[in-house]
Amino acid sequence: MTIRTLAAAVALSLAPVIAFAAGCNYERQVMSCADGTVYDSEAGKCVVSVNS
Q1: Could you tell me the residue ranges of all domains in the chain?
Q2: Residue 14: enclosing H or E segment and its boundaries?
């Protein structure tokens, strides 16, 4: 095997691992709620908005 072939094989085998690790940041996901509701972080769900 040549060096270029070996390097390409290593790069292609590591690509899914790197892509998976980059997509595992769940802390920054945004919850979208229906109109008239807001996200309640304590309850972990959308609740009806109460305007005062």
Answers
A1: 3-48
A2: helix 3-22
